[in-house]
């Protein structure tokens, strides 16, 4: 509780911080935070804690220290007005006596999409929209993409040296970046629904692809394995009963598939595209499985395929202050490549984060201009 009167933007800032606490727990639902203020005092606060659980507005109302009649509700996303896994939040707001609702951004979900705002207005509740709107949209970038496209938001992540190498000329890559950068990667493994790699990564490194945060959530592990070459003894397969694991393949033989299923793996049989698993078909299937986001930690070949098929939405490049050299040392993306600078995959909205001695460069994928 506080008795320091703040602006709408400051209260919304608090709601955004609350919303972030649900990271990794609410997918494919949005992150939402709520603060209830009366007479300059915060009398309730809440956030969407987990998928299927109460929404932020109801959490905030449940925490009230006094009656909400005549109070203002600050919420980062338009309140829902339909029955899903929980009752409509608009009902709870109207029953509470709240007289003013300040909303960060409208909900793109067709079941809501302005209907929540209209309903509140029709019941005499003052609604203010667009407070810290850019920040609220950015926080739910994954949700906004998934609700509109029904396919996962894909983040291509890699670590490289300042001369653009992802491993030495002998193929050794542990470790390129330092502890802070690697901890940030684990935060993203907790944040995004799934992690994707190619079978080449499994054969080379035998990784676990799990989240190492003490209170973190393991992402669904997706391995692109056209011919099912993942070893039965790999750590991915041996831990499939404790960490959800999907093998995307073009193999259909029951005797080949059965041992993986018996080990706890899920098998997705998909068509081929250029001799490999059709990634576009894979993304459609994953969307149908409610997997809203993927951290792509693939090798150079898988990275190129995903880019070439227009499936990557953000690029994260961790750059270490090192030089490996070597004309044959691997780089983040190989494949056919583009033929002219104008055909590049252009990036936009760059962000730079310093993590110890390393630098994280993040950009949205703009377009591939076929010049």
Task: Report on this structure.
By secondary structure, the chain is an alpha/beta fold. The chain folds into two domains: 6-141, Cytidine Deaminase, domain 2, CATH 3.40.140.10; 150-362, Dihydrofolate Reductase, subunit A. The chain has twelve helices and 16 strands. It has helices spanning 8-20, 56-62, 89-96, 115-122, 133-139, 141-149, 179-191, 199-205, 235-238, 254-262, 279-288, 300-308; strands at 33-38, 41-47, 72-77, 100-105, 126-129, 153-161, 194-198, 220-224, 245-249, 266-269, 272-273, 276-277, 293-296, 314-320, 345-355, 358-368. It has a nine-stranded mixed β-sheet with strand order 10-9-8-7-13-6-14-16-15, with helices on both faces. The protein has a five-stranded mixed β-sheet with strand order 2-1-3-4-5, with helices on both faces. The radius of gyration is 23 Å and the shape is globular.
């Amino acid at each position: 509780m506080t008795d320091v009167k703040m602006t709408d933007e400051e209260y919304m800032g608090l709601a955004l911080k609350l919303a972030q606490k649900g990271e990794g727990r609410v997918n494919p639902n949005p992150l939402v935070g709520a603060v209830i203020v009366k007479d300059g005092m915060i009398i309730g606060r809440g956030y969407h804690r987990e998928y299927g659980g109460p929404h932020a507005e109801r959490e905030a109302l449940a925490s009230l220290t006094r009656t909400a009649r005549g109070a203002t509700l600050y919420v980062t996303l338009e309140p829902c007005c339909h029955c899903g896994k929980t009752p409509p939040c608009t009902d709870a707001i109207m029953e509470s006596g709240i007289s003013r609702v300040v909303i960060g951004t409208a909900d793109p979900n067709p079941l809501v999409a302005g209907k929540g705002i209209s309903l509140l207005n029709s019941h005499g509740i003052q609604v203010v929209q667009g407070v810290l709107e850019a920040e609220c949209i950015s926080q739910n970038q994954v949700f906004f993409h998934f609700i509109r496209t029904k396919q996962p938001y894909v983040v291509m992540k890699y670590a490289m040296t300042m001369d653009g190498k992802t491993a030495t000329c002998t193929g050794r890559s542990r470790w390129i970046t330092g502890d802070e950068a690697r901890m940030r990667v684990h935060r993203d493994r907790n944040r995004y629904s799934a992690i994707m790699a190619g079978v080449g990564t499994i054969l080379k490194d035998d990784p676990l692809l799990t989240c190492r945060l003490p209170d973190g959530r393991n992402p669904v592990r997706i391995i692109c394995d056209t011919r099912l070459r993942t070893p039965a003894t790999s750590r991915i397969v041996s831990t499939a009963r404790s960490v959800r694991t999907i093998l995307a393949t073009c193999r259909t033989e029951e005797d080949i598939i059965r041992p993986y299923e018996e080990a706890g793996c899920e098998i997705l049989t998909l068509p081929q595209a250029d001799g490999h698993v059709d990634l576009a078909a894979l993304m459609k299937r994953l969307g149908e499985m409610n997997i809203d986001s993927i951290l792509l930690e693939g090798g150079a070949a898988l990275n190129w395929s995903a880019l070439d098929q227009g499936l990557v939405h953000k690029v994260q490049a961790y750059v270490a202050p090192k030089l490996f050299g070597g004309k044959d040392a691997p780089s983040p993306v190989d494949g056919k490549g583009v033929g002219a600078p104008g055909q590049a995959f252009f990036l936009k909205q760059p962000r730079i984060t310093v993590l110890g001695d390393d630098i994280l460069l993040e950009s949205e994928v703009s377009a591939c201009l076929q010049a």
